[in-house]
What does this fold into?
Amino acid sequence: MHRSRQTPQRNRANLTRLPLAAAIYLAFGTAFAQDAAAQQDPAQQSTQPATTTQTAPAQKQAVLETVTVTAQKRTEDVQKVPISIQVLGQQKLNELDLQDFSDYAPFIPALSFDTGEGGGSVPYFRAVASGENSNHSGPQPSVGVYLDEQPVTTIGGVLDVHLYDIDRVEALAGPQGTLYGASSQAGTLRIITRKPDPTGFSAGYAIGANGMTGGDMGWGLDAFVNVPFSKDIALRVVAWDKKDSGYVDNVPATRTFPSWNADSGGNGTITNVGTVAESNYNDVFTRGARAALRFNIGENWTITPGVMTQKQDSYGNFSSDDHLGRYKVNKYYPEFAHDDWTQASLTVEGKIGNFDLTYAYAHLKRDIDSAADYSDYSFWYDTLDGSGAYFYDDSGALINPSQVIWGDDRFTLSSHELRIASPADQPFRFVAGLFWQKQTHDILQRYLTVGDLATPLEVAGWTDTIWLTQQGRRDQDDAIFGEMSYDFTDHWTGTVGARHFSYDNNLRGFFGYSDGYSSHYGVALCFNDMQFRGAPCVNLDNTVKKSDTVYRANLTYKFDDHKLVYGTWSEGYRPGGLNRNGTVPPYLPDYLTNWELGWKTTWQDNRLAFNGAIFQENWDDIQYSFLPPSGSGLTVIRNAGNARIRGIEMDANWAATYNLLLSGGMAFYKAELTKPYCGFNDLAGNPVKECPAGTVNPNDPNDPDDDEIVDGPQAPVGTRLPVTPRYKGNLTARYSFDIGEYESYVQGAGVYVGDRRAALIREDFDAYGNLAAYTQVDFAAGIRRGNWSIDFFLKNAFNEAAQLSRFSQCATDTCGFQPYTVHSAPRSFGLRFSQEF
It folds into this structure.
């Protein structure tokens, strides 16, 4: 059966690749033919701008729009920037109705992502992913996210900025450590907003509604206004309010605990009937606003203060228990997440002589309140170990051992960057700057029993709390950075860059049980009897510090103004850090080294752009976070061996005719471990990287009897890295035409994602297996007249329930019997009316 199930997937993958391959083949065949013809007869070459009509109006020719980016801290034509970068401009975002991260990520070949049960996503570039448990106590992300000039990267998931009135999204693949720093180890996402414009008034709005197969209704309202107060001052205000419809059913169910039964004085059974059982219960409500004020001071200076705020309320659960069916789950207690954030920013841009000076400041405040049903953990521990017998009230009677997790996360992120850039039109040019960033994270998690817990079992001062985490985390980064470029000739340019950084990370507070419940965790480990934010005492207070330098070098050859090739060597890094479980030693920084050969080309008088890169990346001392087997249930981060990633990425945009535009991209990866992941450290705290069967794991250096004989590495050499497929591709075709006085279009877009390994280590992979390959197809059509337009969208037209991630609620050896899968949303139909003035 296994072989027969895989065969159709391979055939499907081959069929899926044919349209994109055919489009690129046809594009290049036409491009080379036309270029060759133009070279044979110079008289045929146009001396007019590409947008003019040279013969009859019926032969008018479209060209690709020029896209400018600021990826290298300068404003440049994307086709002249010698780095791997994909750009989704404002027009593309509107055409594909891309409103948030999960919408635009499939259309960036180098970008993959992992989605949790709460719906939040974590981005990865170029297969630099270990499939780690990405909760709030994990390491810093490997992908940096920027809103304009300011970093908005927080631990545990991307800041999901609603995309309305956005100029573009820039996706920079590969290490961006020199210009963007620690959280840009594998790449950088930059969301560039539209700025206030003092040259004239403008305003617009969009109203949309959608329905979903098997789900309920959703809607959206967006609006912006740009008000010039004078020729030098303007204000731009944007606001949005939307509902994403629910589609997961929490079906009626009961659950019986073995220990909590009639013989022991309990009824043994819980139910969700009449409480949280509900169809389409994972609604998401998002509302927010953005305002920016622009002051032009003379001809050379601009000051832009701004503020952006967004509140997202999500309910229910986004995963499925596929034993029950797709989009179906059994949850017994309420679940929600309230994500509320505000960022204030200030950007000052000006000139000192011919040099450009930029100062960027931002302060982000993010609060996440959440509740999660943790009864899987309670049920499986009771089923396997009889743990329910240890949960009783003050009279000694057994209670319902189900647990829920109440979370309260408070983030702040402040950053300053000051940089100077020399004139861009000189043979020698440079960018140099200083950067400072401080993150704080107040972590509060209460594991509460549903029944009335006996006072000696509670964490003192916290009613019905069997486990408490009350900690403060501080991550501080400082850096000095710079890049220099020199044009040796009209064709050759060399660039070198470096970033010297230091980090100082601290974690302090309390974690664990009361001393009446455990003699190994919690109060039993306290070394400071002073309360910490209401927790009984302090049992964790550690700091890690380090400084280092990463480098970048690039050599570019320009054939002409439309074609170049480049070679790049670059490094990226993530800081080391501390485990929230104070009994586990700190983890080391991990580094990424990249060798890349790329090309940027335009053809057919700027009708065809074809770009790509071939690369190899070495990832050393991989930071891997996971739930340890049969332990405290607290996330642990260790360094998990080394990996090598080889790949090729390509993207193409082709104005095939005046009416037809084709665009697409593809990526191929071979990503695997080159050193095994053993899963334990030596007595000095360094990760063990060689552990054949029979190796001793010194679990407790003070107790030789507690040592463990392992049966080999948890992930051997050659293990494929999870999350990212071997192949990913997308293709969009848009045909525009006129119907009388109406401008009309039809559009189709398809995304193919190959199968992915759901987990890195053997035990988890045995439980979760592979995520199946999938293809999703969207259609759109619309009309426009004057300043208004109507668009119709059919998303996931063939109702593909794509598998995005798979996990269990606690350690695999305990909860792996009940895995969950996050699927893509079902088929939806939407209508949008928009107007601009």
In short: The CA atoms of residues 598 and 613 lie 4 Å apart.
